[in-house]
Amino acid sequence: MFILPQKDSGTPTTSPGSVSTQGLHSNHGDGLEREGSGKPDQKPLKLYGVGDPTAMFSSDSPYLSSRGSIIKWFWDSAEEGYRTYHMDEYEDENPSGIINLGTSENKLCFDLLSRRVSPGAPLGGIPSCKGLSSLGFLGTLAPESLLLASASVRSSALLSPVCPQLSQSDMLRVEPSLLQYPDWRGHLFLREEVARFLSFYCRSPAPLKPENVVVLNGCASLFSALATVLCEVGEAFLIPAPYYGAITQHVYLYGNVRLVCVYLDSEVTGLETRPFQLTVEKLEMALEGANSEGVKVKGLILINPQNPLGDVYSPGELQEYLKFAKRHELHVMVDEVYMLSVFEESVGYHSVLSLERLPDPQRTHVMWATSKDFGMSGLRFGTLYTENQDVATAVSSLCRYHGLSGLVQYQMAQLLRDRDWINQVYLPENHARLKAAHTYVSEELRALGIPFVSRGAGFFIWVDLRKYLPAATFEEEKLLWRRFLDNKVLLSFGQAFECKEPGWFRLVFSDKTHRLRLGMQRVRRVLEGKSQEPRGPHR
Amino acid sequence: MFILPQKDSGTPTTSPGSVSTQGLHSNHGDGLEREGSGKPDQKPLKLYGVGDPTAMFSSDSPYLSSRGSIIKWFWDSAEEGYRTYHMDEYEDENPSGIINLGTSENKLCFDLLSRRVSPGAPLGGIPSCKGLSSLGFLGTLAPESLLLASASVRSSALLSPVCPQLSQSDMLRVEPSLLQYPDWRGHLFLREEVARFLSFYCRSPAPLKPENVVVLNGCASLFSALATVLCEVGEAFLIPAPYYGAITQHVYLYGNVRLVCVYLDSEVTGLETRPFQLTVEKLEMALEGANSEGVKVKGLILINPQNPLGDVYSPGELQEYLKFAKRHELHVMVDEVYMLSVFEESVGYHSVLSLERLPDPQRTHVMWATSKDFGMSGLRFGTLYTENQDVATAVSSLCRYHGLSGLVQYQMAQLLRDRDWINQVYLPENHARLKAAHTYVSEELRALGIPFVSRGAGFFIWVDLRKYLPAATFEEEKLLWRRFLDNKVLLSFGQAFECKEPGWFRLVFSDKTHRLRLGMQRVRRVLEGKSQEPRGPHR
């Protein structure tokens, strides 16, 4: 863990010029700053940007309202790569199909999950054995010993009354109360379980309280609800960019809230210790810029661990950002959906809920979900933790539209309370698999001489392909992305994350070996083909 | 089924004055028109009203946006009765707790549902046996014979490969695809199943298509999404009132869309055949009125079977309403969530999807859910059927915020395809229980000399308590409602349904005998106490 120089939080850092690499984790890293500083065409970047989600909007429908047409356009445009992918997915039966290294999902642990959720289910349709046997890259452990290790831990968990194996699953309980209209905040039994879970895994100094928990169908909904209850139409949140681009839609489609980007860049300057580092100075400048354009900023969004950077904030940094927000009476939404996906032990992750004192607890709202940390994006479970009862109540009121099934609430409570399984089976196994997959991909990238950013958290590596663009434009970035897709591998290009430097790509590594190997072969083919032959009049 | 006099749909009926009782279903009914016409203080009612959902709004929060404060206020105010109820619910252990005859839920079939969903589950915590043995009012059948009848039908269903009893439930399948990001329209396997299900139960002239189906977490969400994609901020939908009052929030909280009430009243006039009858004339007048106030109307909401009237529209009426909408280029949202809860065989129910030709298929959008017809409001499953692909796509785009778990999607597909169980077990049993409960409550009301409206569909009776109000005001209506609540029975008062005549209440009868009997005793006590002793300075 690196330490930021202590400074008066009231005075923004203003010492550009000096370059520091102190604390840069070159072991997960990358040589990035060398690549960055070696670039001759380094232009001063704009330091912030007020988003206009409809800038590219063109289509219209006689049946829809103007906002309805925009909402439809988001579907039509955002899905381009995914539509192509879904029409030609890689499968055992379709080995020439597209490998998806674009969607941030953890596909490494379906075997563990399906065995936990439906222990008595036949393994036929479920790739449990396949899953374990394909872990070729797991260090010195042969697949068989892993299976045994996993099974022995599993059977110790059997002693817990929570996990009766080979019997009726403990996951399917149909009480009348689960079938009736719920408390829209979420059933109390689940909110209690979430409070205990977050207290434990976020290491909160005092037990967290169920009355501060609101449960709903995923963090996308939570962004939508928070934007709507915190902002008027047209107001904005600050967000450090690059960032997970879907948030643009989440706050805009229903809420009509915009994002003001705090642009980070790859060059390490001043007192910075790593590429794309967020500083209070940058936050202040973006806020000032937005104000000068008449845009009212109501909050700040922090993603920690960060997506797509895989970065984590130190407690000192978190405090700085939160104090900045407090000075300006900004709400802070802290998205911690990757908090249990920190697979590199040397990375000390700190949830905002672990801080001894929050600078402005009434304006600090924490988000977590099972989509990433439990590899279940299709389960639709997310949660808000906030001490502000006005915010909790207003979000609850919108939960009529974000409710999740009582049966799923029961399943989630069962899963979250099963600490034996989580601590002894799921997390160690998941982290080992993530680390192995990450090691494989980083070594491939190093062999190709490709710089990247990655600090041991999340499912992705932020890859610097700038040298493969004939010109530093987003058109060229998109062309390279299409070339990957034509060669049957789907990545995500940097512009989708509002990255201001063309040529960055997010590559998701949390997939099974056979797909990952094939995907990386295809990436390599495109990049090597690229350097060997000039691009033809292709598309 | 009654037949409406055929008339030129282009010419609104304008024949007030004459009273007709033709076709009035006095067997489910009520003597209502006698009560109505006997009232001396009959004043001309306003024929429409442009809703202002924030008219009563007062509270404010320093942390919330103005809309956030309104959204919070909806939670704080709307929940008044329910909060009191939830703090003191009637249970076996709390026999002096509040009986809820206010929430429209079907509590008669949890035994059937829990056995279908988790056949191997222990019956301990699930009131299956209790449920069957409490059916005291089921005509000539003793509880024991019912149990046997039900069991024998059940075992014939066992032959179906869909229902393996006493084994692993077919309801808990954990495929990786169910845990990954879904198609936001809903998984194809489920949309196919929904299309087959609706084709069969709506008796569509041609098979319905999966590409016209969008699946989401309940009809509340669907109202929210449709309002947003069809209307600009401040535009409106027409809705015949009294109506299920929550729709006000559903279209307003996110969508900022208002409702223009088409006021119906209890007096039967002109060519009308029943109280609270919707006519094209009333629709035309409300539309004209809204236009004259500068309110842009974009659509019409029809609830069929109607809530709270329990009314169903004939195919002829449906055609008239749809043609009216087509003339004015209005979208029509047809909410059919009670379509399988028509328990009176003589009532011929017709889904809008059964019509040979829709006047304006591109502007006709049908809603259905399992909340009512399968008594599972806590399951959060709803569906849109529309031929308009722009509307389907725009709603799908918003489904990021209304998604339901892949595991629930699997369960729903399993349930909807199990025609043996639905046709041979669930529907006949459910209808018999609804009918028995309805008969019990209607006889109680008749014994009390209380008029009511009810036509054999839905879970509620629309009860005329006007004669119990010392003055025909909503203040008195609310006082009577509070008196019920003080006497531990929760009803819904008419103003919550935008009924313009003070003194109407919705009474939900779809509850177990012991609760229903106790609830009706308490209702009787309040009403009889009322007539015996003058109201003191109570609240």
From TrEMBL, chains A, B:
Alphabetized InterPro entries for the sequence: Aminotransferase_I/II_large, Ethylene_sulfur-biosynth, PyrdxlP-dep_Trfase, PyrdxlP-dep_Trfase_major, PyrdxlP-dep_Trfase_small
Pfam families in UniProt: Aminotran_1_2
Keywords, ordered alphabetically: Pyridoxal phosphate
GO biological process: amino acid metabolic process
Entry superkingdom: Eukaryota
Biased composition (Low complexity): 9-21
One GO molecular-function entry: identical protein binding
Domain Aminotransferase class I/classII large: 175-510
Biased composition (Basic and acidic residues): 27-44
Region Disordered, annotated ranges: 1-46
Protein name, as recorded: 1-aminocyclopropane-1-carboxylate synthase homolog (inactive)
Organism from which the protein derives: Monodon monoceros (Narwhal)
Gene: ACCS
